[in-house]
Every structure is written in C-alpha cells, then in structure tokens.
Amino acid sequence: MTTTNPPARTALAVNTIKMLAVDAVEQAKSGHPGMPMGAAHYAFTLWARYLHHNPKDPAWPNRDRFVLSAGHGSMLLYALLHLSGYDLPLEELQRFRQLGSRTPGHPEYGVTPGVETTTGPLGQGIANAVGMAIAARMAAARYNTADHAIVDHYVYAIVGDGDLMEGVTAEAASLAGHLGLGNLIVFYDDNRITIEGSTDLTFTEDRAKRFEAYGWQVLDIDGHDCAAAAGAIEEAQRETERPTLIVARTRIAHGSPNKVDTASAHGEPLGAEEVAATRRALGWTLEPFAVPEEVRDLFARRAVELERDYRAWQDTLRAWAAANPALAAERERDLCKALPDDLEEQLLASLPVEPNATRRLSGTVLQKVAEIAPYVVGGSADLAPSTSTLIQGAGDVGPGAFAGRNLRFGVREHGMGAILNGMALYGGFIPYGATFLSFVDYMRPPIRLACLMGVQVIYVLTHDSIFVGEDGPTHQPVEQIASLRLLPRMTVLRPADGPEVAAAWALALRHQTGPTALILTRQGVPAIARDRPFDLAAFNRGGYIVGETPERSPDVVLVATGSELHLAVETRALLEEAGYAVRVVSLPCRARFLQQSVIYRAEVIPPAARKVVIEAGVRFGWDRVVGPNALCITQEDYGASAPAAVLREAFGFTPEKIAQRVLAWLQGA
C-alpha cells in the first residue's frame, strides 16, 4: 500500500529533509550538504510511500533494504531515519560527525539503527545491494511456497556519479543484469558534479546505455518531481526480470541560491550567509533542526500503515510455519547459523586418508561443511576447479534460478568481495568467495569493510606462495599474507595439513563476528608427523607444539605455518643430529596466538630459546611473536617462473638449506 500526500505537505517534508541536512553540516562545520538537498524529493517519495520497513524492528527479515551507496550524503539517510521513527533522536542529528554519536560522517553498520551497511568507499554500497538482492532471491527460492510468500521485498539503493565511475560497480552491475535481479531498484542521483567540478571533466559516457547493455531496465526522471519518482518506482516494481536503474536528473544543493550546481556544495558546509539565503529561498522560517508538526504527522501516518503491513506479514509467517513445520525449522537454523556440537569431529572424520594440497583437502572438507550447514553458499572468481570450491550436487545460482548454492562470480574479484558482504549482511547465509591469494588485492576494499562491520564472510585463498611454480611471480604471493594479518578483526588461518584444514573450516564457521581467510597451497603437502595427537583446542589458540626433543629444554624453536611446517619438522631431525634440542611450533593463526596469555605464549615459545621463523612470505609482523633477534627464513623478494622443486632449492626452502642457515646462525657464523 502506498500513500499520497498533498503537494504543500510534500514540499514541506522535502524542505525539512533539506534543512536538517544543511543544519547538521553547518553545525559540524564538516560534511556534504549538496547531495541530500538534491536527492530529497525522490528519497522522500521512496520512504514516505513505497519503502516497507519497521522502525520498531529494524532487523525484520522481510523489510525492504535501503542502501545509500553515495555515503557522503549520510545526512539524507539520518534525516529519513529520524523522521520515520527509528531510535535516532534529534540530538543525534545535532551531534553529526562528533565522537560517539550515532551519526558518523558516513553510514556505519551497527552504529545507527536502520543503516544496512557501511558505505563510504564509492561503489561498495551498490555492490552490497546486489549481494542483498541475490540473497533475497535465494531465500525466496528456499522458503516461499505456493500458498505463502514470506520473502517478497525489494532492495533499493541510491548511487552517485562517483559510484558509477568506480570499477566495482561495473562488476556488480554486470552480474546483477546477468542474473536478472528484478528485486533490485537503484536511483542514480545524476547531479553531474564531483569534488573537482563538472563530470564533463572525466565522465562523458552514456550511463543509461551502459546499464542497458548490462541487461538493466533504465528509466529517466526529473529527480525533483515527486510524481515522476513515484511513477518510476511503480514501473520498476512491475519489472520482475531485470534490475532497474532510475536516472534521476538533479541539481546538487537544490534550493541554495548561490551554491546550486557547484562543486563546493559537494563536500563543504554552505556557510552562514548561504544558509540564511537558502532559508529565504525556501521560505523556511523555523529554527535550526526544527521539524514541523505536519511533517511529524505525515511520517506518523506512514508508520501506522507500515505497522499494519508488518502485522500482516507476521500472520503470513505463522500460517506458513504451521503448514510447513520442517521448512520453518530449517529457516530458524539458517537464521541462527546453528552448528552441531561435534562439528570439529565431523570435519576431521571427513578427511581423506592420503595427503594432498591443502586446497584439495579443503575441497573435501567443504562437502561435509555443506552437508552440515546448508546456509553455507559461495563460489569463486572463475577459479572453482583450481580453488576446489564447488559444492557438489548443489546446483548453480543463475538467471532465474536461485535454488542452488554455487555462485558463479566470473572474473570479478572486487565485485565478488562486495557482493559477499551484502549477502552476509542480509542474514541467513554464510557466504564464501575464492580466488588465488596473489589476486586478493583486487578485493581489498570489501575485505576491509567486512572487518570494519564484523560480518561473517569466508575467503578461500589458494596458491599461497612462490611454490605456485611455473606461473611466475605475478601469481606467487609474497606480501599478501602479511597484509591480511595487518587488518584489525581479520582472522587469517594458514593450515599445514588435513587436520589443520578441517580445524580451520570449523573455526571459520564458528567465528560469526568477523571475516576469516583460509590460506591454502597449490602444491601437495605431506601429513605432519606430530609427536602427540592433533590438539584441536591448541589449534584454536593460534599456535601449538608439534614436536620436540624429549626430556630437554629446547635450544631452538622452529616456528612455521602452512606448507613450511613439514620443512620445520624435517629440519628438526637435522638439527638434532647436530646435537641441538629442537621444538617445532605450528602457528596457523598469528592473531589468535597473540591474544593468548603471556603464560601460554611462553609455554609454546620459551623466551630463553633461540627462535627461527620459516614462512615463504615477507618477514613483516613476525617480531611481535618471536622478537627482533630471531632468524627469519622468509621470502623478501618476488619469486620466479620455474617448477616448484627448483624454486625451493633456489630460494632456500629445503630442510638441508634451512638447517645450514640455522646452524650457522646458532654457531655465530
């Protein structure tokens, strides 16, 4: 149901949104007033007539999602949330961009009620919206029945010129058109202004034709015409086979006599004189941050309609659950991401007898993961055969087909990362995405945002070192592991063999408050010869003792990760032959190990022992674990194109060469 409002009341509401943005930016002496002023007409139309949500239950599963991809215009969203009745009082708008407020400079997920995702880096929001739309279609395919539709909402977004310039938008929009996401409706705020000036400086392509080529429906409107916006929304809703781009031609800082259509209005306060001129131009005589009672009443009436729709959906949900109790139980499991108590034991039992590359072992474990947790879905950037990330027998997500679990992202790492975030934010899924570790930098912005938001995404990153071999240094990562470890809230796991791979997947599934990266080998690795049975609890602490010279305190501790752990085990034997007591430590997760008590860390890596790190990546960051005086046998330069065995010999990653370096170091040579 939609509501129409008298033109005078509509104009008053639009001006209220504009002036809340102007006043907040002016008081903060910082912000972006132009975009909220220009977008106020069509944004008001969407929120006051078409957007289905519940301010009293911001997490309602069947709400329409709204994403402000042009996050610099955050006061547009904050004004709408406040007026709509979310827990965002006027005092928070008055504290815009201040420490501890719920109105940060760019929208942040988890900070402001009603904000669906963290936006700021341009293009990320629209790609998140694509992920949400995919997840919604997948949820509808899973849960809707012929008699009851419990998933039937839309995903809306607002993008600006900067969003459309960023490459991630091209990747995500291309995939959205391919999949036919008719539940995705995007407003393009076509104000033709960026920070440097007119978009004519750099951006003269035909944006409408570009999106038509992607397979989108494209509609053009005057963005300051509320009736035109309403008509476009209704036309977009009727199109079920294609996403829709509504090109809303607007004027930045609309209503400001002297700043309209200027670049300065993009990212600067209007200034006291221009605020006064704008008030006169709009006929606005109220005090700063004032909201007319007629506008309060307008949004209150809309809230009553929304509450009626919300209760009707609750009735539908109850009827659906009564008619489909097994399906209702599955949905509850998915929303809670429920896992069995014996998850780790089941994954360990799924391992093959024969050792293999950790990417292949991961692929085997993934099949068991998929059986245990049907809400785990994902795919790769056109690398599934190499990354071993297809869920067997689960079907593909494709045009008009959303019941499958395998996502085909194509060669689109950046888009994949941002889409995964949108799917995780949607709820009910744990998404994973795979690529070669050397290409992870293509998706660094969404990985950083996943960390910032604390959302559960799993990255399967294979071909993890120079031992990739003949493909050469372009495909041989050396700095990527260290750079991922730099990210706050990122869990980086580099397992060494089958038990560690199974444990890594279990940890990733249980870790619901942030992303996890599984770092896996291309080449085969042997099973680790441990002195004692594999200790799952010790693995989960990030580091543990694999083996040591019996009945002696260690002279030297060899710390290794991933495929270099077996080199440490073999090196131990050579050092023991030379008379040294040696301990081998596996450190699959440096961050988790550093979170342990000083006592535990000292028990694993005794301060008095000499310390050696063996990892085929850059040394950076290891001093926090072993101190600055340790010997680090690492890879400080790029690799080369040659067979892996040749590279091991050339770069010193053989037990014999490692032992030689350690002995020379121990003996002071």
Shape: elongated
What is the mean predicted local confidence, pLDDT?
A: 97
- Spatial strand order of the main sheet: 9-10-8-11-12-14-13
Share of helix, binned? 40-55%
| Total number of helices | 27
* Derived structural class: alpha/beta
**What is the beta-strand fraction?**
5-15%
Per CATH, what is the topology of the largest domain?
A: Rossmann fold
CATH superfamily of the largest domain: Thiamin diphosphate (ThDP)-binding fold, Pyr/PP domains
Sheet with the most strands, sense and barrel status:
7 strands, parallel
Distance between the termini: 82 Å
How many runs of DSSP E, i.e. beta strands?
19
Number of domains: 3
**What is the name of the CATH class of the largest domain?**
Alpha Beta
The CATH architecture classification of the largest domain is 3-Layer(aba) Sandwich
Radius of gyration: 28 Å
Low-confidence stretches: none
